[in-house]
Amino acid sequence: MFGLGLPEMGIIAVVAILIFGPKKIPELGNALGKTLRSFKEGVGIGDDESALEEKEKEKEKEKEKEKEEESPPKI
Description:
By secondary structure, this protein is mainly alpha-helical.
């Protein structure tokens, strides 16, 4: 995890408690969690839209192929 071991994480936690205080840490964690969740949802929506567009293009190609197969050959 970014080259951070258990001792480094402990030092970061102690410094965070000293700076923000023990009552503020859960609020900061909650805000960070909400931010990450909304970011993931935003990224997921973008992926879904592009996937839908690709599926629609594939369907259009299949329809064109079917039309070509159904039409009689030109002489």
